[in-house]
């Protein structure tokens, strides 16, 4: 298997590590300019622009009356989707819901002896847009994205949840996506993809009302569109290709490691699958397992290109060094396939999600474990977290003074206002306490 192998102690190993630590990238100029133009067209032309782009890139005969998914389409989806798939969607939804219900924050207040009341009020946003990629023209429906984005919004109390997903060539949406939407109570679904879908959510059109928050994965055009509308709306994050870093010692099973690296590599030719290990023999066994397992994959070509372009094995002295390097890399998915992985958990500084032990493949987190699979990539786990209920709420400060409290604080307020040259601020207190 053509995968890069380096010893961290060498100059080449240090160079490789530095490139991994500093891997944040934005879309290139061509993509940025194209997205800027698309967003401008959607902002000024509304539905007409959305339909025009949909015809050009997805469904050539697409009409405006097809834009919103109808109740008849939902009913047809119920007939088309296999019952076992429906059961699994419901199972995953329960797990995700149970986990995220623990994230819900309460408003709180505190009262001082002088009668001052301060606090924080937590309220949901009014609306959220959920972008769901088409998945190879609709043939591989990303139902997990519907659940992972839609359930936390519902728990937060968002009244209006809108799903956007591109149609297939016939102007339809995969039935499994509609069943996932129905499972979590989403009834407003539109058939639009890429940057024009993000533009419609941000600016609104005659058919599609704008939203307050936009979440969901996508290609570089979706990501760049979210970046360009950020500020007008909240977004979940600027996301790059999917990533996994596996820390392993001699106790690890090379077949497990190879399988988990391939599970990331099959996402995208730019996906990052990485192993940091203390055992050179294990590293060799992993490369052999990659050769064995690769030909079995339906997405062999994608996984092979990914490993050739970005696959990495780094040899280190001990697990403690591996954990320290993993913290600097700040990976999206971090697996600890080492003896007693729990003892190392307190030393993990930065990671989107952490998977402990040999029986915890990253795929479990993608689907049914419960925690959200929308995670920071490209090193942004240093500063950001997984999507959660907090993505869909905002917090207002509460302040209430009694006259006694204002009299007690007046001199301090006026002194600071004078220092900053803000006389009206000082006077707004003075007129109350004179």
Describe the protein in words.
Helix 5 packs across helix 8 and helix 11 packs across helix 13. This protein has a six-stranded parallel sheet with strand order 1-11-10-9-12-13, with helices on both faces. Strands 6-5-4-7-8 form a five-stranded parallel sheet, sandwiched between helices. It folds into three domains: 151 residues, 3-Layer(aba) Sandwich (Rossmann fold); 207 residues, Rossmann fold (3-Layer(aba) Sandwich), CATH 3.40.50.1980; 31 residues, no CATH class. 45% of the residues lie in helices and 16% in strands. The longest helix is centred in the N-terminal third of the chain and has 18 residues. The protein is α/β, with parallel strands linked by helices and 434 residues long. It is built from 17 helices and 14 strands.
């Amino acid at each position: 298997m053509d995968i890069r192998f380096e010893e961290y102690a060498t100059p080449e190993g240090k160079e490789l590590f530095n490139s991994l630590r500093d891997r944040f990238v934005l879309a290139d100029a061509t993509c940025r300019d194209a997205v800027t133009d698309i967003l401008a067209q959607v902002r000024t032309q509304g539905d007409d622009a959305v339909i025009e782009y949909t015809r050009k890139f997805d469904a050539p005969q697409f009409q405006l009356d097809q834009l919103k998914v109808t109740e008849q389409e939902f009913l047809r989806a119920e007939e088309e989707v296999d019952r076992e798939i429906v059961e699994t969607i419901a199972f995953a939804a329960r797990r995700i819901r149970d986990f995220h219900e623990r994230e819900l924050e309460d408003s709180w207040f505190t009262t001082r002896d002088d009668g001052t009341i301060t606090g924080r009020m937590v309220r949901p946003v009014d609306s959220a847009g959920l972008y769901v990629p088409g998945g190879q023209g609709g043939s591989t429906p990303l139902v997990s994205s519907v659940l992972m984005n839609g359930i936390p919004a519902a728990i937060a109390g968002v009244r209006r949840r809108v799903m956007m997903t591109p149609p297939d060539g016939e102007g339809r949406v995969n039935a499994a996506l509609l069943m996932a939407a129905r499972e979590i109570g989403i009834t407003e679904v539109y058939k639009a993809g890429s940057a024009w879908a993000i533009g419609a959510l941000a600016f609104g059109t005659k058919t599609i009302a704008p939203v307050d928050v936009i979440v969901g994965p996508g290609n570089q055009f979706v990501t760049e569109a979210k970046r360009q509308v950020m500020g007008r709306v909240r977004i979940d994050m600027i996301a790059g290709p999917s990533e996994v870093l596996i820390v392993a010692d001699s106790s690890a099973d090379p077949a497990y490691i190879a399988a988990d690296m391939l599970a990331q590599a099959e996402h995208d030719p730019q996906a990052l699958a990485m192993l940091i290990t203390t055992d050179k023999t294990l590293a060799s066994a992993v490369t052999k397992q990659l050769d064995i397992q690769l030909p079995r994959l339906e997405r062999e070509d994608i996984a092979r290109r990914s490993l050739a372009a970005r696959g990495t094995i780094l040899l280190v002295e001990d697990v403690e060094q591996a954990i320290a390097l993993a913290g600097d890399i700040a990976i999206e998915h971090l697996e600890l396939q080492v003896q007693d992985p729990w003892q190392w958990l307190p030393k993990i500084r930065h990671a989107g999600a952490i998977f402990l032990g040999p029986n915890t493949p990253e795929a479990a987190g993608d689907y049914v474990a419960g925690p959200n699979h929308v995670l920071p990539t490209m090193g942004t786990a240093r500063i950001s977290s997984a999507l959660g209920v907090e993505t869909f709420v905002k917090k207002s400060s509460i302040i209430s003074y009694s006259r006694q409290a204002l009299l007690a604080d007046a001199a301090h307020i006026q002194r600071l206002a004078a220092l900053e040259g803000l006389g009206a601020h000082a006077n707004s207190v003075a007129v109350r306490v004179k």
